[in-house]
Amino acid sequence: MTIQKSERYKLFISYSHKDAEWLERVRIHLRPLERDYDIEIWDDTKIRAGSNWREEIKNAIQSARVALLLISADFLASDFITYDELPPLLDAAKKEGARILPLLLSPSRFKDTKSIAIFQAFNSPSNTLIDMGKGEQERILVEMTREIEFEFKNVARSTREILKTEIINFQPYIDRIIYDFENWHEYSDGQRKPIIELFERANLYKYYVNLRCRDSEKEYDPIDEYIEKWINDEDKNHIILLGDYGTGKSSFLLYLTYILAKSHKDNPINNPIPIFISLKNFKKIRDIKQLIQGAMKNDYNRFLAILSGYGVKFNNINL
């Protein structure tokens, strides 16, 4: 069976048994990642007595998202590594995006071995781990864990977002936002919801005028560029839009809801789902969890909530 890219979830460690002491040290550094991210780390010490060891290694390679190569002269001298482990790993890197991460333990012909020399190692062939003092060795191993952590965080995020789009269908909601904004006038008086009444009041689709703002660095005209910058900055959790009555705050938030709905429709994996909430309908609710539950009647965990009066971005709210 061919393992698809989304099914690659393991960290596979390829090493020579003569470098078992280094494997032990590497695994100590990787232990926090196993605990914090539930990463499955595989090396041949996981093979159980009496099992088909070749088949277990083959299966582990087929499910490897990242392959950590502990490079030494003994590693390169191993026929099994050269002919059984490396070819499928290199093929997965080429065709399925698996990562190959060499860690140079001791001087070897690594840079002369074309099949793996193309991959960036954590350290230089002229400065292998045995050439370093203990402190520098440990720093390299910490850098190794950070690179592996980055890779698996990306995999987890991508998998979560893809599953979300497959399991939860927001498309009717997104389509309704876009349609309501562009066609509010087609509704009869009895059909118009509060959000449609706001569209009618502002006649946004026809007459919307861009706002502008300034921060410590520059002026943004229109304000859209600043809002996009805020949305993409993971270190900024909220934004508050202040202004006098009638200056266009609610109109802008309605317009922003419309723009974000169109962006989400074009790219649902990478763009947030906008939720417009009229706070006047939730005057007695003081808890943000209750507010979003009341507005959506659903149980999802990532929103861009747009409040009439406040624009707030909430990430990973456990509802």
Rounded radius of gyration (Å):
27 Å
* CATH homologous superfamily assignment of the largest domain: Toll/interleukin-1 receptor homology (TIR) domain
As for the number of domains, it is 2
**Largest sheet features:** 4 strands, parallel
Order of helical and strand elements: EHEHEHHEHHHHHEEHEHEHEE
Compute the average pLDDT. Answer: 77
Architecture of the largest domain, CATH level 2?
A: 3-Layer(aba) Sandwich
Distance between the termini: 39 Å
Name the poorly predicted regions: 1-6, 187-196, 298-303, 309-319
In oligomeric terms, what are we looking at? single chain
| Spatial shape | elongated
The proportion of residues in beta strands is 5-15%
Q: CATH class of the largest domain, please?
A: Alpha Beta
Per DSSP E runs of 2 or more residues, the count of β-strands stands at: 10
What structural class should be given to the helix and strand makeup?
alpha/beta
Q: Counting H and I runs of at least 4 residues, what is the number of helices?
A: 12
CATH topology grouping of the largest domain? Rossmann fold
Measured as a percent range, the helix fraction is 40-55%
Strand order of the largest sheet: 2-1-3-4
